[in-house]
Design goal:
By secondary structure, the chain is α/β, with parallel strands linked by helices. It has 18 helices and 14 strands. It binds pyridoxal-5'-phosphate. Pyridoxal-5'-phosphate (PLP) binds next to helix 5 and helix 6.
Length: 461
């Protein structure tokens, strides 16, 4: 009981959005029509939507009020000024380049800092981040610690950079071929695993001494700050706001997708300290996004974002409840013996589909099958993160078999209640009790690139 109370939501519900409760027959039809791919389901057929936490947050009354207050002036918008001061106060960066979302900021940063032939070390790739680094002529090199690849390792900071790996890249290619280190907080592709403050400090000291910039992907820095507070010695008495400012103090700038921590449905930014980098970024911004005082956002979007940024750190209660809800679901599953990736990360739960469905061989897609079965069982929409997502090896044409065959349950911020988490946990547990009722799938359509988005399947009978 005490555990449940400790993270209870610091808000109450003022407006509700009805969601459809469907019958099993309706869901069987819907998943068949979607080719057994949860990406192809209609949102109105979904009861609890755990596909992603990107752009799916619920805004507060203050943010909604901010929409009315948005200044839509083409140049010199008051809402831009409010956003600049929010980013400055909360993240500590002077220069702000507003973009339509995270990848817009990644594009601009990569274009201005990377020259063809450069190397960009980072702690595990993120799809869009790596794409833009390579699009600019750079080569991404993964320098994350080995523990990140071990689902059973309960290391507290599995997002850390391995300094030996980083030094090897710099020694091999020379510091002048490494424009910056791309340092992601609460590493998304590792399951929302944090980096430690000690590691941030060490990497920044190493890089500063060699004239290498440190650019954070601070998209999930708030959730990272929470894990530092809870897990790293000496931070329990510090506020989330203070910890976040210390995180960003060990960097020269950051890209942020505001669709995550920042509690809005669209938006993002690049923020830096160096006015010269900012000048170059603004020159690109006017070509690819919009004028420098709105970039890729409307005035009202910037107003809601400015308020979301202040709100996420106004009290530690927000992030405690956010991560607390993820941990609540994770702990319920762990208690029931369901195999999941540990420790539970900041934004979702990753089910180990290969262990849950040992009778389904990899070429019949255990994680895809589990995600489809979960939808049919309860209307919960999850997504596959396994062999289907990994695609085929371009050389051999064979499936790439990833180390992990997972189903991701991603929790939107401030959207679902504890009862929704209970329904989700019960549904997963009931599938785990009768795994033999879940069968494998085979392709009926396999797209050449990013096949997981649009592939269709049929059951193997
Ligand atoms: C979502 C995300 C991005 C990309 O941001 P978009 O707003 O989707 O363009 C980049 N990095 C991380 C860590 C993310 O989670």
């Amino acid at each position: 009981m005490v555990e449940k109370r400790s993270w209870a939501e610091p808000w109450k519900i003022k407006m509700v959005e009805p969601i459809k409760m469907t019958s099993r027959e309706e869901r069987e039809r819907a998943i068949r029509e979607a080719g057994y791919n949860t990406f192809l389901l209609q949102s109105e057929d979904v009861y609890i939507d755990l596909l992603t936490d990107s752009g799916t947050s619920a805004m507060s009354e203050n943010q909604w009020a901010g929409l009315m207050y948005g200044d839509e002036a083409y140049a010199g918008s008051r809402s831009f000024k409010n956003l600049v001061s929010a980013v400055h106060d909360v993240y500590g960066y002077e220069e702000l380049i507003p973009t339509h979302q995270g990848r817009g900021a990644e594009h601009i940063l990569s274009q201005i800092l990377i020259s063809p032939g450069d190397y960009v070390p980072g702690n595990m790739y993120f799809t869009t981040t790596r794409y833009h680094q390579e699009f600019a002529g750079g080569t991404f090199v993964d320098v994350i610690v080995d523990e990140a690849h071990r689902p059973d390792s309960i290391e507290p900071f599995k997002g850390n950079i391995d300094l030996d790996k980083l030094a090897a890249v710099v020694d091999t290619h020379g510091a002048d071929k490494v424009p910056y280190v791309s340092f992601e907080t609460n590493v998304n592709m590792a399951g929302g695993q944090p980096v430690s403050m000690a590691n941030l400090r060490e990497v920044y000291e190493y890089c500063s001494a060699r004239g290498i910039l440190v650019m954070l992907d601070a998209t999930r820095a708030l959730e990272n700050a929470y894990f530092i507070q809870q897990r790293e010695g000496g931070y329990l008495d510090k506020s989330i706001a203070e910890i976040l400012r210390e995180i960003t103090s060990y960097s020269d700038g950051a890209t942020v997708s505001s669709k995550k921590d920042n509690l809005v449905n669209i938006g993002g930014f690049l923020a830096v300290r160096d006015p010269e980098i900012a000048r170059k970024a603004r020159a690109m911004l006017v070509v690819f996004e919009g004028l420098h005082t709105y970039g890729g956002m409307s005035g009202r979007d910037m107003e809601a974002l400015a308020r979301g940024i202040r709100e996420m750190v106004a009290s530690d209660d927000h992030v405690r409840a956010r991560v607390g809800q993820v941990e609540y679901l994770g702990n319920a599953l762990i208690k029931a013996g369901v195999p999941i990736v540990k420790p539970v990360g900041g934004h979702g739960i990753f089910l180990d589909a290969a262990s849950i469905l040992p009778h389904i061989p990899m070429e019949h897609f255990p994680a895809q099958s589990l995600a489809a079965a979960l939808y049919v069982d309860s209307g919960v929409r999850a997504m596959e993160r396994g062999i289907v997502s990994a695609g085929r090896d371009p050389e051999t044409g064979e499936h790439r078999v990833p180390k992990l065959e997972l189903v991701r349950l991603t929790i939107p911020r401030r959207v679902y209640t504890q009862a929704h988490m209970d329904v989700t946990a019960e549904s997963v547990m009931s599938l785990c009790e009768r795994p033999e009722q879940v069968g494998g799938l085979r392709f009926t359509y396999e797209p050449e690139v990013l096949r997981f988005f649009q592939a269709t399947f049929e059951p193997i009978v």
